[in-house]
Amino acid sequence: MSELHLSMDGARALHLAAQGLLQPRRRKAAKADVLDAIRRMEMLQIDTINVVARSPYLVLWSRLGDYRSEWLDELLAEGKLFEYWAHEACFLPIEDYGLYRHRMLDPAAMGWKYSSTWMRERAGEVAALLAHIRSQGPVRSSDFERTDGKSGGWWEWKPEKRSLEVLFTSGALMISRRHNFQRVYDLAERVLPGWSDAQLPTLADVRRSFALRTVKALGLARAAWIPDYHRTRRPHVDPAALAGEGLLLRARVEGWNDPVYIHPDHAALAQQAADGALSPTLTTILSPFDPVVWDRRRALELFGFDYRLECYTPAAKRRYGYFTLPILRRGALVGRIDAKAHRRAGIFEVKAALFEPGLRTSEALVRDVAGALQRCARWHGCTQVVINRAEPDALAARLALALESSPRLGQAA
Hints:
This protein is α/β, with parallel strands linked by helices. It has helices at residues 8-19, 31-41, 55-64, 70-77, 97-105, 116-121, 123-136, 159-169, 188-191, 203-218, 226-230, 239-244, 267-274, 296-303, 363-379, 394-404, and strands at residues 4-6, 44-45, 81-85, 89-93, 173-179, 182-187, 249-253, 260-262, 283-285, 324-329, 332-342, 347-355, 384-387, 390-391, 410-412.
């Protein structure tokens, strides 16, 4: 296969096709599709913020449309998924456990996720906690009362929670299931009884596998994008060397001086992209922790979309809002919404719909975005969408009118 040359639109289309975001699904999602989507992305990042649906459920909805969110919980409880640190904390296909086992065996290299000092100074407490789980069964952090008088913030975990987390990072404990999204911790040998470290791949093979899998998940990748996906440490695998072995294909994207790499499994898809035959038609709402946008630099280079999650930014310094959700429209990231689902009231509140400067806001775009908001609201169990404001200003009324004219969901201003 000769070196392909891709337009920027073709590069975006190839990326979205690999991520399962090129076109709307033609059939209703089934439980197996949840697992397939996670395998396609390599991982599903976990976050607990729930002003709208929690991130992992929203990432799946963006790809699958309406589906039963409990399927994700069931797949974890059934042992088809496990949790560990990948890009960040993620749901991962159970068959990939061996790829992450090296991280468990060297937990001190995991930074804040593990504390050797804690394990040394609290050795007796940690051993007692393990003994309790061994004799009494799985536990949640909430099973233990706080006794130190602290508030329980992110950096003020109670001692048992801290011990559970370091034991999880070291691989002694695994997450057997979740209850109301709370982790349920159990002994690794009970959650995954068939595992033996004799099955452990070499670290060199793991690094190569992560590089190849990243390129496949992204559809195409510049060399600088690859380490962030699985958060791999140096020494990084050189994709040019993998291409030299025939394990990756090289291509060019207009306007970029460096090559991009494509997995051979996507060769036919890449040719379609180069020929202009991949047509993005999906309009949807993305999670801030969607793989398409979690790497800010990649989103800027590929989509021209400067995205920052501002929930950790002081309110007075926020430009867009607390938990803004990118809008994907037919192959472009066209804006973001600051939204909140008021589930009891049945209202999906769009505090702000903020579109990219210079965007041509055609009637087709307004209809597409209104339709995506409508579908997202309905999936949240909300029967009404409220648009508080928009940028440009005139779009608020136009979105309201598009929602009002829909026969499936009402709208209120």
